[in-house]
Amino acid sequence: MPRTAHVTCPLCEATCGLSVTLDGPDGSDVTEVRGDRDDVFSRGFICPKGVSLGALHADPDRLRAPLIKRDGEFVEVSWDEAFAEIDARLRPIMAEHGNDALAIYAGNPSIHNVSTTLYGPVLYRAISTKNFFSASTVDQMPKHYTSGYLFGAPFAIPVPDIDRTRYLLMLGANPLVSNGSLMTAPDMRGRLKALRARGGKLVVVDPKRTRTAEAADEHHAIRPGTDALLLFALVNVLFERDLVSLGALEDHTNGVAELRALAEPFTPEAVAPDVGIDAEAIRRLAVELASADRAVVYGRIGTTTQEFGTLASWLVDVLNVLTGNLDQPGGAMFPSPAASAPGSSKPFRHGRWRSRVRGLPEVYGELPVATLADEIETPGDGQVRALLTVAGNPCLSAPNAERLDAALGQLDFMVSLDVYLNETTRHADVILPGPSPLERPHYDLAFYQLSVRNVANWTPAAMPSDLPQEWETLLRLLGVVTGQGPNADIAALDDFVAGEFARRTGADVASAAGRVGPERLVDLLLRSGPYGLTLADLEDAPHGVDLGPLMSRLPDALKTASGKIELAPESITSDVPRLAARLEDVPNGQFVLIGRRQLASNNSWMHNLEPLVRGSNRCTVQVHPDDAAGIGLTDGALAKVFSAAGTVELPVEITDVLRPGVVSIPHGWGHDVDGARTSVAAAHAGANTNVLTDDGPLDAPTGTAVLNGIPVQLAPA
Ligand SMILES: Nc1nc2c(c(=O)[nH]1)N[C@H]1C(S)=C(S)[C@@H](COP(=O)(O)OP(=O)(O)OC[C@H]3O[C@@H](n4cnc5c(=O)[nH]c(N)nc54)[C@H](O)[C@@H]3O)O[C@H]1N2
Ligand SMILES: Nc1nc2c(c(=O)[nH]1)N[C@H]1C(S)=C(S)[C@@H](COP(=O)(O)OP(=O)(O)OC[C@H]3O[C@@H](n4cnc5c(=O)[nH]c(N)nc54)[C@H](O)[C@@H]3O)O[C@H]1N2
Ligand code: SF4
Ligand SMILES: [Mo]
């Protein structure tokens, strides 16, 4: 008899509810995946990735047993053998060289997985290495940094109240393809349509006329990397025209006068030649933003992974404050999640330690992944000799990928928690697999903190797994790194973790009696959360619980030392002279490379699924027709693309959606490596664009990689 499981899709930030039909002798054959029409948040929405959850579950290349590399070949082993190997090889490295000799890289899916979200940090704290890296420094770290300094807490990220706004100025985001990021909002097409239907306006700023730009009222093709200049000019106009109006924020904000002074040189006329948008249009945008009754500015990855990522992220929030739209319905609001992991009670600061080789400051407990290769390659005290990756594929996702790939090959020991033997994990000595998304429980702890509506939805595992849950594997690793050996008492460690959670949240650990692992921790977090929910409440609501629209949260949400919004903190404003220098020295007209996301793709790791690699999901270099004509490129022919870091070859796709002078390559491809076990991906290999991105220039305050706006040259191959 077929049965239906209701699951929250864990593949992206949209948190769609899906109905999964299961059949077959042991109920583990996925016969259909549909959008769940009764889901309180997503109302039946689904994308091609969600549909492919069944293909992912069934993928024969997905690992189902631990692997150990013996004489260069991976062999399947038991869990006991795998842990014995880790204990025998990792412990001596840590004993001789210290914990900093073990680096950690946590990848994107680790935040889409309740086991690794909750138990990863437990292990990382126990290892306590300075060399902690994650996908955040190729993604949203500037946003944590600016939230840390403006609001006092790196996870206090305001999100656009998209269902109530009447004016949305969106920069560097393409949610009709990405399905939204730092903005949990299933069915973005429907939400943007509704915005326009109620008389609202959508303005998109993007070097490319994306799907989202096509669906907008207005599109401005900005020159890559110049968002901070544009945003500063908007601030300038607000002051010039006396349009600054903080409203309810007046008593809660410091730094307005400093900001006025800082914005002075950035007039629309001064920035226009570099930004590529004319001064008159910039003035009009500022006036529209200030006069719309509910307006919001939103920036995403095109604004964070660029040379001025921190300044651009900061100015997005600054504009929301100066127009009185922060914390107001229809503006940028702080969600009120039902459960959130306990954070630090101290106001945010960065630079508590620095990287050994380049002296880059720590931000939010991390060093930039752009410097991981430096730390592995450079001999001396504190050199990285071992690496643990958790759900990450830095060989495809980090800048200067060829160099990092070679560096991983030099490690003394590497362990990966991962579901594939791929470009990165092929360098591991031991790979520890986790269950498929349908074999584990799910709760979107991180993404409900970024949700445009307050909702809560718990997903029990749709079916049992033959593999240990990843929280158990992480605790077993905790046993190894803390010297308890390869067979530590996991239940005892878990009791200890739950006790600590209860202590930090004020919940009574006995109230969650009878539960273990993430179930117990989520139950404790819900109980201590603002709605007093329990896990049992959510278990009774398979389509989720709607907790209503976003609510104003100031001043309570502010954790700065002053208790106020700090609009002009020195840790941010000290980077303004670097931006001002750009006004004097506008880069010349060479080609610049930007990235792009594809609907049927998920960064680097879902290219092994036949249904997703068919059709339009192709790794090409997009070039504007005028540019192509100028250098003799023809559609479909191969081009060579060169940068300071490397060279790749890939097919040309000629399209007028790009701003002339800008070329675009998607990331996450380049599957033609030796030693991986992803047969479908290998047949659709594509090229790795991060061979072209450089690990040298970074967003100065945070060390976030510059992945957009890379100078490149092109030629027919
Ligand atoms: N040039 C360029 N580079 C980019 C970007 C860009 O826009 N341009 N975007 C950046 C961004 S935003 C991000 S987030 C990063 C992503 O960078 P990463 O997080 O390093 O890479 P992913 O492609 O997400 O790879 C995830 C890995 O997790 C594994 N995995 C999947 N599910 C699970 C699971 O349930 N458990 C475990 N243990 N493993 C799992 C996959 O097999 C894969 O190895 O890439 C960045 N790189
Ligand atoms: N289908 C699919 N969905 C995904 C992912 C995926 O790989 N595939 N990845 C997920 C992840 S990890 C993340 S972080 C999110 C990201 O979510 P989004 O930020 O919405 O991602 P993108 O679609 O890359 O949109 C970035 C846009 O920035 C533009 N851009 C590039 N440079 C600049 C610039 O200098 N200035 C401006 N203003 N714009 C610029 C690009 O043209 C692009 O349209 O998506 C998530 N969702
Ligand atoms: S939009 Fe995201 S959450 Fe929704 S089905 Fe697609 S991948 Fe899953
Ligand atoms: Mo990301």
Automatic annotation (TrEMBL):
SUPFAM superfamilies to which the protein is assigned, alphabetical? ADC-like, Formate dehydrogenase/DMSO reductase, domains 1-3
Pfam family for this entry, one:
Molybdop_Fe4S4
Database matches in InterPro entries: Asp_de-COase-like_dom_sf, MoPterin_dinucl-bd_dom, Mopterin_OxRdtase, Mopterin_OxRdtase_4Fe-4S_dom, Prok_molybdopt-oxidoreductase
Alphabetical list of Gene3D superfamilies matching this protein: 2.40.40.20, 3.40.50.740, ADC-like domains, Dimethylsulfoxide Reductase, domain 2
Keyword terms: 4Fe-4S, Iron, Iron-sulfur, Metal-binding, Oxidoreductase
Taxonomy-wise, where does this protein's organism fall, top ranks first? Bacteria, Bacillati, Actinomycetota, Actinomycetes, Pseudonocardiales
Name the UniProt record assigns to this protein: Molybdopterin-dependent oxidoreductase
Q: What is the scientific name of the source organism?
A: Haloechinothrix salitolerans
Q: Where are the transmembrane segments?
A: none
Tell me where on the tree of life, at the top rank, the source sits: Bacteria
Task: Please state every residue range assigned to the domain named 4Fe-4S Mo/W bis-MGD-type.
Answer: 2-61
